[in-house]
Amino acid sequence: MHNISKFSDFFYDSNLKKILDKPSGQNNSVLVFDYCGVRDIYSSIDKLAQHLVPYELHFVSTLINRKEWSHLDLLYGNLIKSPPEIWYNPRTQLPAARDGESNKNIPNIDVLIENLKTAVSNGTGLADTNIIRCALDTAYYFSAMAIRVAKPSLVLVWNSFHPLSQIVAAVCKQYGIPIGYLEYGALPGTLSFDFCGQMGESAVVQKSDAFNKLPICKADLTLAEDTLNYFKTTGINRKELPPYRNLSKLVAEKSRGRKVILYAGHNDAASGTFPYTQDTRVHHSPIFKNADEAGRYILSLARNNNWFVLYKPHPLYDRAVELSTGENCLVVSDYNINECIDVADVVATVLSQTSYVALIREKPVVMLGFNHLRHSGAIYQATVIEDVEMQFQSAFAGFELTIKRKMWSDHVARLLKYYLYQHDVYSPDEVPARSLQQLASIIVNTIQENTFEEFKTK
């Protein structure tokens, strides 16, 4: 491997020794990996650890390598610090790569290198290949070491699409360890847990027949409506949003009475659309290879139909391509997403979770790809390029909008009752999703019964 650190340094600095200090009979555990450096999940991870008895939770985090976050700790779980070579951040300089033998065991290494280069460079791909390879190699060896030391019964990974997360998945496959995926939920203030994957690969989509038949009652629908009203009224978002800036006046001046489309871009490197493969076409984006290509096509439709486009790029993938030119488009990178949605007639995206925010704010949504909404019946779904213009026309006309809003309420009711979990930064009164205690029970049942079911109620 790369001679970046002595393996003993990895071991002692990481807190893995704490696991070996315990009697061998106490090594039944759940091992959680976050190589993305997520900042606000520590309290939720710790609450999950509290309820996982008799299983111990070990949490591998890259975030605590950064000085400003090094104070973070867990009360109930065991926090494991990953080597600093794994940590990446597009706003900081990656560690210098050193010479060494490359790992031969990582599958699809060339694809992962290009994916990580894209991820750390805001989509440009301009990153040092040696440094990127160093991060991937280190992630492989450290993940394997953590798994061999902790002997987990189950591994959980934050963000299935991230190339470093895919390294963990590859190691789990080699060791025969079952894996599940954690991420922010589709609704604000929630977390998702899934054995199938995320978004278009999620159980909500892959097992849609079962999910859409899960029983809901009048009380569930009332709770869903109340929750949606709370989301719309408060405008809560997992990211801090800028204040409103009177966008409606600017759009009125620019659009001059034309129909307005808000196009929300996505981060290709973290959404399953880069690189573009057959799996991408099947599960995520059947029409367009990336967010830019979809944006250019929407702009061509806008020119032909005299529509006006607001383009909001993903905040971590902010290239505005040619959409910023001409009188048919306005780039709104720095505007509040809720304000952008409110001034639009229709919201479009390939697979961004902005689709959920738009439906919360009662706007018609045209989907050009797939996320959890694929089989919900709540959106205007295009699956071939010939359908895109027709779906926009239907959305502008409000075709079957009453039916779609009913399907949307049903979808939200099922998400809250059967799929999404409370993020500990919000109270159950604010976001009445499933409790982390329920998630712990499902994880324990999975381990003990060797059954993998996302929609269990107990």
TrEMBL record:
Species this protein is from: Pseudovibrio ascidiaceicola
Highest classification ranks of the organism: Bacteria, Pseudomonadati, Pseudomonadota, Alphaproteobacteria, Hyphomicrobiales
Top-level taxonomic group: Bacteria
Name by which UniProt lists this protein: Capsule polysaccharide biosynthesis protein
Gene3D superfamilies documented for this protein: 3.40.50.12580
